[in-house]
Design a protein that fits this description.
single chain; alpha/beta; seven-stranded mixed beta sheet; 14 helices; globular
């Protein structure tokens, strides 16, 4: 049976070119980059090449890039590191209600340690309103952290304007750009970001590697003690093969980011239009155009998302009902609830995220199989039967 993978927001397949770049660092190039002899110098040169590749991809300077294990670690470091480094100035942090749990849970942890956090609401499309950021600022605000693009509904946030508001009040700005890097153009200097988190396995690098951009002059506490690696800010021997893989993958992803986005957006729009045209009582979640080029998120009324995912899997199609980090939970998505969906509608969500290995035929196959799956599940649904066919969602 043909298998179709449409959960690229959860993770991506390592590209062959990335794997090829990594392989020497599991064999011949095994030196520790902190050593001074030739084995170490060879590894150090590769480490710094990867650092430059990441920096170039997001418009940063090489010395502003710090390697981590993942996007979650990067988010934790940026938020906790800023909070404790600037606690003498203030204890207030602003974020949004639709952040990834790597941000939300970190902020909740900080609330137990003397910090106050404002969780801003979003509108029906998932946008954080800049005027709400402005209204929430106080003389104790030290950090605003708002994601670049939402991992579930794909909405791209007005992060440049939010960064300007934060700076006007003397606060720092951090963005979780895990879903955005490699998908849309990013220039951290022009956009005015102080910190940016990214993750390798969202852009065809392996799992277990990420990076944090920290603008020169921005004071953030040390992430972990133990050595002088990463210019004394994150102790621990560098994960060389994964770091090299991240460098190669991010260079490939951003070589023609606009052309890449255009190609994916064409498939995305074909998929959205097809679902809305063939299945009644469906609502598109997130903004129609101000969204990631690969993201499709719909709520299909009168069915359970989990049942739909299982039927799709039996048909050879891998999809998601939301964030991969919460896919084992029976609770509805906090993002969908935040944009105003009732629980019963949020439970019927489906996220399809396209990637470089998807084709028009993949889209056609999903559009061929999904309507029948929905029809069968609705036939068994007491909610659908009570509705006598249902009403169109608005």
């Amino acid at each position: 049976m043909e298998r179709i993978y449409m959960d690229n927001a959860a993770t991506t397949r390592v590209k062959p070119e990335v794997l090829e770049a990594m392989l020497p660092f599991y064999g011949d190039v095994y030196g520790n980059p902190s050593t001074i002899y030739s084995f170490g110098r060879e590894a150090k040169a590769a480490l710094e090449r990867a650092r430059q590749q990441v920096a170039t991809a997001i418009g940063a300077d090489k010395d502003e890039i710090y390697f981590t294990s993942c996007g979650t670690e990067s988010d934790n470091w940026a938020i906790k590191g800023t909070a404790f480094a600037h606690a003498a100035k203030g204890n207030h942090i602003i974020t949004s209600a639709i952040e990834h749990h790597a941000v939300l849970h970190t902020c909740q942890w900080l609330e137990k340690h003397g910090f106050t956090v404002t969780y801003l609401p979003v509108d029906e499309f998932g946008f954080v309103r800049p005027q709400d950021v402005e209204a929430a600022m106080t003389d104790k605000t030290i950090l605003v952290t708002v994601m670049f693009a939402n991992n579930e509904i794909g909405t791209i946030e007005p992060v440049e304007e939010i960064a300007r508001i934060a700076h006007a009040h003397g606060a720092l700005f951090h963005t979780d750009a895990v879903q955005a890097v490699g998908a849309v153009p990013i220039d951290v200097h022009k956009m005015g970001f102080d910190m940016l988190s990214l993750s390798g396995h969202k852009l065809y690098a392996p799992k277990g590697v990420g990076a944090l951009y920290i603008k020169k002059g921005v004071r953030v506490d040390i992430n972990q003690q133990g050595g002088a690696q990463e210019r004394g800010k994150r102790g621990g021997t560098e994960n060389m093969a994964q770091i090299v893989g991240l460098g190669k993958a991010i260079a490939m992803a951003t070589e023609d980011v606009e052309g890449h986005a255009k190609k994916l957006a064409k498939l995305r729009d074909r998929l959205i239009d097809g679902i809305l045209a063939t299945i009644p009582d469906v609502k598109l979640n997130g903004h129609r155009t101000q969204r990631l080029p690969n993201n499709v998120n719909v709520s299909i009324r009168y069915i359970e998302g989990e049942a739909m995912l299982l039927r799709l899997d039996l048909a050879g199609i891998a999809a998601s009902s939301g964030s991969a980090c919460t896919s084992g939970s029976l609770d509805p998505s906090h993002v969908l609830l935040a944009i105003g969906l009732p629980h019963e509608v949020a439970h019927g969500s489906l996220r399809l995220t396209l990637g470089d290995f998807n084709t028009e035929q993949d889209v056609d196959t999903v559009l061929e199989k999904l309507p029948g799956i929905v029809e069968k599940l609705r036939a068994m649904s007491p909610l659908f039967n009570q509705s006598e066919g249902g009403v169109t969602l608005v």
